[in-house]
């Protein structure tokens, strides 16, 4: 695999057995991906410890599950650890990691740690620039409804189950496979879903060509006789499907495109724009009605991917899968309704690349219009490099909103870059056709007050981004109550 990022891990090497890991210590255990792996290891009887920069409800939950978790980083925390698990975000200068390296401890990426728990499972890996958390969650819930009792590890908490991961002892393991650092190559799935292949994480890959090569390697990692489920509507995914099929992999496609093996037709929303009904048309002439409580055509596509993987990949009963999908009530931070005050609905979403932002804003605008209201969006760009590379795409995605407030760039693992600010998105957004208010900057309280000042009954307020913008929804709800 060609990549631009620093290759600290070989994701194609053999994964160690779970019984060889000994005591496992997680550095920054509170992250969504890290906590998921820790939960599965705890459930499988592994002795787990961990550290994080600050306390959180996630740490409290892990302690209740049996992990020894401390706040702060110190070399003493890894003294008794046999294996260290980190994410790509942990620098080599971290005192715990440096101590573990010096001691010769085994250091695994979180994906390798998770793969170690999955050796004896039938694995399904869900990848893609957009939609993988929701698709992973939908597939998990659908397989549960079909009585297949899957284990799972997702990047987001399943709303109805209060966790992002679980070990059930069932035959199937559903995992969200992260492409951002190449770690999706580690799982060797029996079934793989690719929702889309789009230019993202160029800080790691350098070019879109390298992104596509990584996905090709991911498809090659599917076990012999396995299945690739790919979206026909996305150009990158369609190219991947054609290449994999030519190489002899079994491939099934889905989409609104008539060429798909599973074609979606007659997609329509209810009067509120939330619940949807879609017809699934198979090439053998059979059809089925799919009902969802989650809005948007993009979620219908996610559900179709889950349906194909469950029925064609694992032989699940199609009607039971459809019933499970109908009962799916969402994942945290994926169009999550945080509350309603005085007729104003506040929704929070994790979208952080142009495709995700466009999908969630378009869906929210349609819902607001059906209600007879307007859409007000607060967007926090995530990463300076992504803002630099995709400012025009973000502007186009935000354009359907009536009000757009752009928060400062959330740098996460990156240092500020000269000239890279939210104004890079604001400038082209102001030039796009249509009337909208565009504001840049402000504290959460300032932004909340500004959003509330322009919101009225039947309106929808949407907070968007992968950083701490999720906290803004609470500020907006309090401001609405005070008003």
Quickly describe the structure.
With 483 residues, the protein is an alpha/beta fold. The chain has helices at 32-43, 57-65, 95-103, 110-116, 132-145, 202-205, 208-220, 235-246, 297-314, 318-326, 354-371, 384-398, 423-431, 444-454, 472-482, and strands at residues 24-27, 48-52, 68-71, 83-86, 106-109, 122-127, 151-158, 163-166, 172-176, 191-194, 227-231, 250-255, 262-269, 276-282, 287-292, 336-341, 344-349, 375-379, 403-406, 437-440, 460-464.
The helix count comes to 15
Mean pLDDT: 92
Strand fraction: 15-25%
Q: How does the overall form come out from the CA principal axes?
A: globular
Strand numbers in spatial order across the main sheet: 8-7-9-6-10-11-12-13-14-15
Q: What is the architecture of the largest domain at the second tier of CATH? A: 3-Layer(aba) Sandwich
Distance between the termini: 55 Å
CATH topology (level 3) name of the largest domain:
UDP-N-acetylmuramoyl-L-alanine:D-glutamate ligase
How many domains? 3
Q: Percent range for helical residues?
A: 25-40%
